[in-house]
Design a protein that fits this description.
alpha/beta; Aldehyde Oxidoreductase, domain 3; TIM Barrel; 2 domains; four-stranded antiparallel sheet; 11 helices; pyridine nucleotide biosynthesis; transferase; NadC; Quinolinate_PRibosylTase_N_sf; nicotinate-nucleotide diphosphorylase (carboxylating) activity
Length: about 300
């Protein structure tokens, strides 16, 4: 089978320090405060016992999160005072995998392999489930000119991993949080008194960020465009209304101070069977919270080989 020195950075941007913190917290949940203990493994397996294990896909999907394997093994080995197992990867993040396919081979102290097992499976299975969902949308949208986006509806503490997985599956990330893009919604408009007032307040306070405005109707979209929005979120619009709104915005592009291309994002009540229909309206993006809040895990397993 083919091998890889380490998982490909198909989706760059997963910070090493962040990953180390997440793995540390996950291990603390299982073992207790560092160094912690695994009372079953440490009672039944000698520290000197070595063995091999295979990380295997139990279902078809798109794999992501293989980047957690090395970090989890490294931290567990450090807690136990044992050498870190060697890892040979046979798949890369973002790759389509089949049931029974070996994703990685691990060799080293059995205590480390067993203590690390659930943590690395939890993280990689979760990431692979998100990547699998994103890949399904990416396939459905292929050739339309539109891309699928994620949202902030992520698992608390795992946003970076889940957004990484979306990229690995062929999707794209929207804002990472409340800090990098302004999103003017109805409550902000109420607080500021108007769409224009909200946009001007953001530009005055945080001139370095882009401003997106949520619109439920064509009239709201045009108001936001006139007020200087950088891009528009078209929320819960029936397909005919969405198409009309897109056409109205495109007709205004390049005129009266409107940018030559205004990015448009459809959201709300989006399902895979509607993906191409919605993309056909001419939007640039479809944002789908279900990529992260509802994607089932991809079933992965760690199979231990005979112990020496």
């Amino acid at each position: 089978m083919p091998t890889h020195d380490r998982p490909s950075a198909v989706a760059p941007g997963l910070d090493d320090a962040w990953l180390a913190r997440v793995v540390e917290v996950a291990l603390d949940e299982d073992l207790g405060t560092a160094p912690g203990r695994d009372v079953t493994t440490q009672a039944t397996v000698s520290p000197s016992a070595t063995g091999t294990a295979e990380l295997v896909a139990r279902a078809a999907g798109t794999v992501a999160g293989l980047v957690v394997v090395d970090e989890t093994l490294r931290q567990v080995a450090g807690r136990l005072g044992l050498p870190a197992p060697a890892v040979t990867f046979h798949a890369q993040d973002g790759e389509a995998v089949a049931p029974g396919q070996v994703l990685a081979s691990l060799a080293g102290p059995v205590q480390v392999l067993l203590v690390a097992e659930r943590t690395l499976l939890n993280l990689a299975s979760r990431a692979s489930g998100v990547a699998t969902a994103a890949a399904a949308w990416a396939r459905e949208l292929a050739g339309t000119g539109a891309r699928v986006l994620d949202t902030r509806k992520t698992t608390p503490g795992l946003r970076a991993l889940e957004k990484y997985a979306v990229r690995a599956g062929g999707g794209a990330n929207k804002r990472m949080g409340l800090h990098d893009v302004a999103m003017v919604k109805d409550n902000h408009v109420v607080a500021a008194g108007s769409v224009r007032g909200a946009i001007e307040a953001v530009r005055q306070t945080f001139p370095d960020v882009l401003v997106q405005v949520e619109a439920d109707t064509t009239a709201q979209a045009m108001e936001a465009l006139d007020a200087g929005a950088d891009f528009l979120l078209l929320d819960n619009m029936p397909t005919p209304v969405l198409a009309a709104t897109v056409a109205a915005v495109r007709e205004r592009q390049g005129r009266d101070g409107v940018p030559a291309h205004v990015e448009l994002e459809a959201t709300g009540n989006l399902t895979l069977d509607r993906a191409r229909e919605v993309a056909g309206t001419g939007v640039d993006f479809l944002s789908v919270g279900a990529l992260t809040h509802s994607a089932p895990i991809l079933d992965l397993a760690l199979d231990l080989r005979p112990v020496r």
